[in-house]
Design a protein that fits this description.
Helix content: 25-40%
Number of helices: 4
Largest sheet: 8 strands, mixed
Strand order of the largest sheet: 1-2-3-5-6-8-7-4
Radius of gyration: 15 Å
CATH architecture: 3-Layer(aba) Sandwich
Number of strands: 8
CATH class: Alpha Beta
CATH topology: Aminopeptidase
Shape: globular
Low-confidence stretches: none
Number of domains: 1
Order of helices and strands: EHHEEEEHEHEE
């Protein structure tokens, strides 16, 4: 699969993938993470305009979407419990979702992100055991928990630099 910047032409497919993801999360006991209109067209429009939204495609078909946001995330400034592994510059993986037809999506996303910035953070709803498993399987450390502005409680994850820069 190829990873490229998303464009506004991808919006309908992105929203289809998000609906598939919502249904999957509900089936796995996580009905509250993406509710209502979030994440929807307004959020992905902002992500695309910021140059932070990417899609994975094969043979012209988009199978997954994610955001790699570079720099400080205001919601990540304070954890309710615990601490981040370091305070070095980082990127954050947000809104990762797949249509479920391809294997290895998370591994590809992670490799892509680490090529751009090896110090990564992510968060996921306390009920999203699938994402928790993927993050931990790929070396992310659970650093604590956080209350998001939308009222959800998430676990905070960090995959620090492979070697600390001097």
């Amino acid at each position: 699969m190829t990873i490229r910047h998303a464009t506004m032409d991808d919006m309908d497919r992105i929203l289809q993938i998000i609906e598939i993801g919502r249904a999957y999360m509900v089936s796995k006991g996580n009905p509250g993470q993406w509710k209502g209109e979030y994440p929807g067209q307004p959020q992905f429009s902002r992500d695309i305009q910021a140059g932070e939204c990417y899609v994975l495609e094969e043979d012209g078909i988009v199978h997954a979407v994610f955001v790699l946001a570079m720099g400080e995330d205001p919601e990540y400034q304070q954890l309710d419990e615990g601490a981040w592994c370091n305070d070095l510059p980082y990127g954050t993986i947000h809104r990762l979702c797949s249509d479920g037809t391809q294997k290895g999506v998370f591994s590809q996303v992670l490799a892509f992100c680490r090529e751009r910035i090896p110090n990564l953070r992510a968060d996921t709803n306390v009920n999203n055991t699938v994402m928790q498993h993927l993050l931990e399987k790929h070396g992310f450390c659970r650093c604590g928990s956080m209350h998001l502005k939308n009222g959800n409680v998430s676990f905070a994850y960090h995959l620090p630099w492979p070697e600390q820069p001097e």
